[in-house]
Prior knowledge:
By secondary structure, this protein is an alpha/beta fold. It folds into four domains: 2-219 and 359-392, P-loop containing nucleotide triphosphate hydrolases (Rossmann fold, 3-Layer(aba) Sandwich); 230-347, Pre-protein croslinking domain of SecA (Alpha-Beta Complex), CATH 3.90.1440; 402-572, 3-Layer(aba) Sandwich (Rossmann fold), CATH 3.40.50.300; 604-782, Helical scaffold and wing domains of SecA (Orthogonal Bundle). It contains 31 helices and 20 strands. The protein has a seven-stranded parallel beta sheet. Strands 14, 15, 16, 17, 18, 19 and 20 form a seven-stranded parallel beta sheet that branches. It has a two-stranded antiparallel ribbon with strand order 6-11. A hairpin with a 4-residue loop joins strand 7 (251-254) and strand 8 (259-262). Helix 26 (624-643) packs antiparallel against helix 28. The N and C termini lie far apart (81 Å). The relative contact order is 0.07.
Amino acid sequence: MIESMKKILPLKKEHQWEKYEPSVRVINDLENQMKILTDDQLKAKTTQFQKQLHNGSTIYDIREEAFAVVREAASRVLGMRHFDVQLVGGLVLTDGNISEMATGEGKTLVATLPSYLKALEGKGVHVITVNEYLARRDYETMGPLHEFLGLSVGLNVPQISQTEKRAAYKADITYGIGTEFGFDFLRDHMVKDLNQKVQRPYHFAIVDEIDSVLVDEAKTPLIIAGKMKSSANLHKVGAKLARSFKKDHDYEYDVETKSVTLTENGMTKIERAFAIDNLFDIEHQTLYHYMIQAIRARVMFERDVDYIVEDNELKLVDLFTGRLMQGRTMSDGLHQALEAKEGLAISEENKPQASLTVQNYFRMYPSLSGMTGTAKTEEKEFQTVYGMDVVEIPTNKPVLRDDRPDKVFVTKEQKYEELVREVENVHQTGQPILIGISSILQSDQVAEYLDRAGFSYELLNAKSMEQEVQLISLAGQKGNITIATNMAGRGTDIKLSEKAADLGGLHVIGTERHESRRIDHQLKGRSGRQGDPGSSQFIISLEDDMIERFAQVERDRKLKSIKTGEYGQVLNKDLHKFIDTVQKISEGSHYNIRELTLKLDDVINDQRKVIYELRDKVLQEPKVLSLLSPMVNDFVTYEVDRHCPETIVPENWPLEHLEAELQRGIPLMKKMTLSEYSYETTDDVKQAVRPTLDAYLLQLEEAVTPAIESSWKQGAVMKLDQLWIRHLEMMNRLKEGIGIRQYQQEDPIRLYQKDGLDIFGHHFYQIKREFVILMAALCRPAKKGENKGGKEDV
């Protein structure tokens, strides 16, 4: 088996294979030893491994034997035995890398090897999939294997209770959806009591369809939002004004990055409309935000493509699946801008209360690994962002699929006419056909052409997940025609009937080149699984979205010299190279967007760590004064520096204002009049305040009771959350100004980092200030009037 695998592997990957060859041989040599063990003896291996790890062994000391145990247990419990290539896949995952394995090679079974091994450390393993159906399927099918070996298994999906979530995370191995793990992290940092948290520290994660989770979903951050009233009138006025804006005159729209930037004319038009002098003054930030959202709503989103209007309500469309996203809305006023554009009633806004990019969430795992059939084209990104290599795993059997050269046509109409001819020719033989489409709009177009030709077909663009999986699994039956979005039923194998296999297997038709070669490879990979026969044919046009978006001018230039054959098929061979180049440009553009998203979030991520660490300290600190006392000192230092700067002569310092501010946090300051003293430096003022400050801190030690501590913790967390939400809003506004800074030829990232740090410094002090003032307010009622001990009021 090993020698045959060597023949399948590309020569350049031989070194990577040789790295795992000795381990595979050891696992194979152990197989007979495992077979003669009773069930109880096999189960006892788990306890044996755990003891070895407790006594100082590492997972690499027990890796081969543990894999052999899982292989034998899988054979007994599931009736499935790991192939050698699956062992290699498991070894790659254990090393924290990506196993690139073709469709049908049993990735779900591969994950049982490293998940068992790493779970033995007792720190938890997360097995992450792209949707709830696959998470439940893997939990139900692979869970019994782990339970047989004595490990606990949990399932983390939306809509389960906190108690159920806590139990799921407590399990040795937890199956679930990637976004749900991320949202749980954010929710854990919004709790009012540490006992309400559900997660434990991260250890090891295996991400199935890792390119979908870490690349396709990486452009959209995870956001938890709360409702707030929005200015309906401002949205309506903004929508009306945006209708008068002309592209390139009033605003610039970058089709590649889908970003909007105001021109000088656009800025002037807004300033005149609202009778203001400077749109970028701090008091006009909200107006600027509303206008940018109004323009985005007008130019970036198309009705019946990105959203529909149904029953006087705006509903979003998932462009990956074609499904309506029931109950989902866009945040930060963009949804309301779309409602204003369509003349609908303006709903409440979703204001972000916590956010996190997919990249920064998964970078929190000390060890991260993944599986997919298509990762090689994104290897650079996986290496730079996550430190993971992509290792191509050979198929268990050679791939027999016939991938035919693209057929290129000038117009979409010619393309769809050729699609009908292709379907007609293949369908006559009884060979099953899968037509891949990229959007709900395109599925309607394809369906219309097939209807005219009288074909019966299954259309997968708005079914439930269970129906979708069932229909996609039947796409390999003789004579079936299935139209499906790229993401429909992903993770589900299409199995051929015997008759279909004899007829040549599944024939896949691609209706356009996608904006990543990876998606094209995924579509082709639906056919030819596990050595099955199959074929693929892409039928595309020069009017397809990718070319319109990234190479419209170059395409128009090339049209002048195009030669066409029968039915309008393009004969110029250089056009194929041109399309390949455009696709690479598209990939680069999407990578740049994800890179920018990550760079921007890296700024907030550092701030998030500080805030979340402080929040946890507030909730878990048994003696709050140990946390608060340094803040009282910071409060005095900051306020004295602010009111008494060295740049102003002491005679002009506003000492009365300083007294009033200090009294809010240190009530004892009421007994002191700063103007009675003379000062030469700022430090002189601090020295004058020091005795009163020290006396206050001593009195706090006696005044703070457990009841006050509890009240302070709840109030402090509330203040922190309010200021953090305000900070996120200001950072979003700052982010919106990036386009203007590019226009002004400044480095937008550097300025965002600098300004973001300034804003955070201000807000972080405000948090500490609120903490100090809160404690002063809580202690006052407890010490009103004369104290029995004769001490002064706090």
